[in-house]
Amino acid sequence: MVDRVATYSQSGALMRELMRLQSQYSTATMQEASGLITDKYDGIGNDTQRLLNLESEYSEITVQSENSQVALDRVNIMYNNVDTMLDVLTHGLVKITESLGGSSVDGSFLTAELQQGVEEFASRLNAQLNGTYLFAGGASAAPVDINDADYNLAVDATTVDLAYYQGSDYLAKVQVSSNLAIEYGITADSSGFEKALRAYNLAISAPEDDATLREAYNLMREAHEEISTMQTILSSQATTLDKQIDENTETLNLLDSMIGDIKNADLAEITIKLAELQTQLEASYSIATKLLQLNLYDYIK
């Protein structure tokens, strides 16, 4: 202490300056390595609350987009299955037309064709995605069972029979944005589906009776038209969901940029700052070395 009595105040001030420079250099080094201004909220200062709000909104919209994509995937698969059902119905209409056209179509052959058609149609109504049935409403079991004991083979074209349906009337809803929720999907008990199954059963019940086949044909054509309308509805739902996902993506990109403006460091500026701090540190170390080498004798000599 005697050696440095005269330089005590100067050395103390110098050491405080060295510590300040070292702290700034350490912070700048961290910023350069991470690309962030700070890894703690309290290091952002007045922008902390704004950052928290932006990150909360980003998280909320991310969840909404993910849920919307799940809904869109389900709707698209529903659409594809409905498209196949329409093809199956078209084939059934062709076969019934052939029988009504006077061609020598054996009743057993028509029955086999229609039986295959109704089974394919029912299997499409039991379509699944990730273990859940698409046309079941909120039910967890397969929604359609055309072999159910309570489901009778149709004997007329006017009696509605929904005994095949094992699902519920629930329709899923997804929150796609803060102010918009979309109900989507269709259930296997919809009128067009019921009419299609009834038309098949009606034709199968009397494959060689022209009057019955005409009723079945007209009913199947009605079913085809209604199911086409349902497919249009699914298409509209898919378009709405896809559009909202795009809008959410744009919003997320904007939020990401705003969050980055608060959190991200300017690497070019940091590089310059590091060089300046290193120069100042080296100069301070040099001064400190010389100052600490002084003793009282050198000072009064």
Full CATH superfamily name of the largest domain: f41 fragment of flagellin, N-terminal domain
The share of residues in extended strands comes to: under 5%
Total number of helices: 7
* C-alpha end-to-end distance: 18 Å
Q: Looking across the biggest beta sheet, what order are the strands in?
A: 1-2
What is the radius of gyration computed over CA atoms, rounded to a whole number of angstroms?
A: 38 Å
H/E element sequence = HHHEEEEHHHH
Q: What is the CATH fold-level name of the largest domain?
A: f41 fragment of flagellin, N-terminal domain
State the CATH architecture of the largest domain. Answer: Up-down Bundle
| Fraction of residues in helix | 55-70%
- Give the mean pLDDT: 83
* Domain module tally: 2
Q: Which structural class is indicated by helix and strand composition?
A: mainly alpha
Name the CATH class of the largest domain: Mainly Alpha
Based on Cα principal axes, name the global outline: rod-shaped
Q: Largest sheet, if any? A: 2 strands, antiparallel
* Strand runs, count: 4
Pick out the low-confidence regions. Answer: 1-6
